[in-house]
Amino acid sequence: GNSVTQMEGPVTLSEEAFLTINCTYTATGYPSLFWYVQYPGEGLQLLLKATKADDKGSNKGFEATYRKETTSFHLEKGSVQVSDSAVYFCALSAQNYGGSQGNLIFGKGTKLSVKP
Amino acid sequence: DSGVTQTPKHLITATGQRVTLRCSPRSGDLSVYWYQQSLDQGLQFLIHYYNGEERAKGNILERFSAQQFPDLHSELNLSSLELGDSALYFCASSVGQGLQGAEAFFGQGTRLTVV
């Protein structure tokens, strides 16, 4: 079945450090890939997405490239800030999953803490 | 603010009881999705409704049920509650019939504690 695996946290970085959070997926067909972020006490928010192979999603300095050959969608940011501290979820939406036109399947989340 | 409203924010109840969680989607969104977030299982998809009709079921227990009303708000009913049902329950909404390439807008969740 469809699944998402992302690196276990927590990840602790100093401000301005480089961030990579690994994400790999298993899916039939051609899924869409997403990164969602959850700040403390809030719901999830879409950070970025990519809908086909070699697409790069980007937002707020974060980037991720849809790599079909390695079934990966790693999240990167060149210089993290304290305000980036949150839990990051990799997710996929596959066509015709469970009879609907795509539903989100999430990884377990990676907690990022950025220290000043 | 995502535009998705969930009530109540917190709920504490005893084992064996029944509760109802409510979700109002963003204006114009026809799809509502329910997710359960727990420490051990992560985010698990429960059920999806589109314009009042059930479209997909995920890992939803038989003790749980949901519906979407004509005004598009949705309710998740949890009955015969067990300690293991304690979790954060999220509702999300989207415009179309699914999330293939589309953004889901999440509410802030209802934290259910079963004692």
Which terms summarize this structure?
heterodimer, A: about 120 residues, mainly beta, six-stranded mixed sheet, 12 strands, B: mainly beta, four-stranded antiparallel sheet, 11 strands
Structure commentary:
The complex is a heterodimer of chains A (116) and B (115). With 116 residues, chain A is mainly β. In chain A, the strands form 3 sheets. In chain A, strands 2, 5, 6, 10, 11 and 12 form a 6-stranded mixed sheet that branches. Chain A has strands spanning 3-6, 11-14, 19-21, 23-26, 32-38, 44-50, 56-59, 62-65, 75-77, 86-93, 104-106, 110-115. Chain B contains no helices and 11 strands. At the A-B interface, strand 6 and strand 11 of A face strand 5 and strand 6 of B.
Topology, please?
The complex is a heterodimer of chains A (116) and B (115).
Chain A: E1 3-6, E2 11-14, E3 19-21, E4 23-26, E5 32-38, E6 44-50, E7 56-59, E8 62-65, E9 75-77, E10 86-93, E11 104-106, E12 110-115
Parallel strand pairs in A: 2-12
Antiparallel strand pairs in A: 1-4, 3-9, 5-6, 5-10, 7-8, 8-9, 10-11, 10-12
Chain B: E1 5-7, E2 10-13, E3 19-24, E4 31-38, E5 42-50, E6 53-57, E7 64-68, E8 74-78, E9 87-94, E10 105-106, E11 110-114
Parallel strand pairs in B: 2-11
Antiparallel strand pairs in B: 1-3, 3-8, 4-5, 4-9, 5-6, 7-8, 9-10, 9-11
